[in-house]
Design goal:
6 helices; mainly alpha; 65% helix; globular
Length: 94
Amino acid sequence: MTSMNDTIDNMRKRLIFRSEHRGTKEMDLLLGSFAKKHVPEFNEQELREYEALLEENDPDLYNWITEQETPPEAVAGYSMFPKIVGHKYKYQSL
């Protein structure tokens, strides 16, 4: 029988992988580095929110994270979204 922790650990691994393999180099670097640092600390609710965020397309995500466009309320309401926006300052050359 699979334990809840095993399921959560698998979800974390999957989300980190998806973050590192977005399809654009900019988003691979930005979300990949963010995920490696923060996803291991996320609780189940944060993991589900982050998973929903990863369903968004790269051009929109990039514009929201770099503050070129205002994100939809649902995205802006994700608990980790301000952390991602703050994390982008490490990669200002993107």
